[in-house]
Design brief:
It is built from 16 helices and 3 strands. It is mainly α and 294 residues long. The chain has one domain. Strands 1-3-2 form a 3-stranded mixed sheet. α7 packs across α12, α9 packs across α10 and α11 packs parallel to α14. It is globular, with a radius of gyration of 18 Å. Bound molecules: zinc ion. The site of zinc ion has 9 residues, from α7 and α11.
Length: 294
């Protein structure tokens, strides 16, 4: 039954990788020029520089949760996964950063250089630590595989900061933002290729296992979101509207997990007291900013 309901669903449901496809904007034109000059060979320094500038824009435009404890926790769990990936260059550059977007909508996305954003609405829908870890592992995977750089080199013209503010959270806090959506709306919803998503899924499994966390949270998060679509469609409408469902993504992640020794997978923690404390603290935040109609 589940299979038929989840047909076509991808991990990208909550991993808004399509945002990463629109990273060029006037704020970073200098950096972009440097990239185009070097072609495929983007250095770590260039990647971090680009990512920092995008992150700066994004953080100005999106409502970011400022609570110190919450930020500390999401960075601890994110770092525990990121520092064991093949991107030791980003770890050495101390460039991985994890942010919580104060939005009720379900989403997450990654920016080159290791800047990872996850919506409060997604965290609130998790039940256990391994489910958030899976989302982070997937987003980290896009950075690890340099998908975001590739997209960056292919796309031009959007103002990523204001675009994200409107699209990711529905919080359009400027006329500029609304104009950007109208101009760039079509392209903004472009997605990563199926292959990139499959790679990020695989990275998600590998990265969580390597970090000593159960990878089962990845397919389970799909099931949570599918259930949400049944019971509360509006909360996940934007996400589902921009991401076709791909059942094979769930099957694929389950198959990857099945390749491990089951005893090892069973031994990996799925939850922690700290995670439940974290979730409790999230619930105690004031309500997220009210989305404006766009
Ligand atoms: Zn993705």
């Amino acid at each position: 039954m589940l299979e038929s309901r989840v047909r076509g669903m991808g991990l990208a449901q909550y991993a808004s990788d399509f945002f990463v496809r629109e990273p060029m904007n006037r704020f970073v034109s200098g950096v972009v020029l440097a990239v185009s000059l070097t072609g495929c060979g983007v250095s770590t320094q260039q990647e971090v520089e680009m990512g920092s500038q995008y992150a700066q824009q994004i953080n100005q435009q999106l409502p970011i949760v400022q609570d110190v404890e919450l930020n500390r926790y999401v960075n601890v769990i994110g770092d525990s996964i990121a520092r064991l990936t093949s991107r030791t260059d980003l770890t050495e550059a101390n460039s991985w950063r994890f942010f919580i977007v104060d939005s009720r909508e379900v989403n997450a996305f990654a920016v080159p250089g290791g800047f990872i954003y996850v919506n409060r609405g997604l965290i609130e829908r998790t039940q256990r630590m391994d489910q958030l870890a899976g989302v982070l592992g997937h987003e980290i995977g896009h950075v690890v595989r340099r998908h975001s750089i590739k997209q960056m080199q292919q796309q031009q013209g959007a103002n990523i900061g204001v675009t994200l503010a409107c699209v990711l959270t529905s919080v359009c806090n400027s006329q500029v933002g609304q104009a950007a959506i109208q101009v760039g709306g079509g392209a903004i919803f472009a997605r990563f290729s199926r292959q990139d998503e499959a790679e990020a899924d695989a990275e998600g499994v590998t990265n969580t296992v390597r970090a000593g966390i159960s990878p089962n949270g990845i397919p389970e998060m799909f099931k949570i979101l599918i259930a949400e679509r049944q019971s509360n469609p509006s909360a996940v409408a934007a996400m589902f509207a921009t991401h076709p469902l791909e059942e094979d993504r769930i099957v694929a992640t389950e198959e990857l997990i099945a390749q491990y020794n089951p005893a090892i997978i069973r031994s990996l923690p799925t939850d922690s007291r700290n995670y439940q404390t974290f979730k409790q603290r999230i619930r105690m935040l004031p309500p997220s900013p009210t989305p404006r109609s766009r």
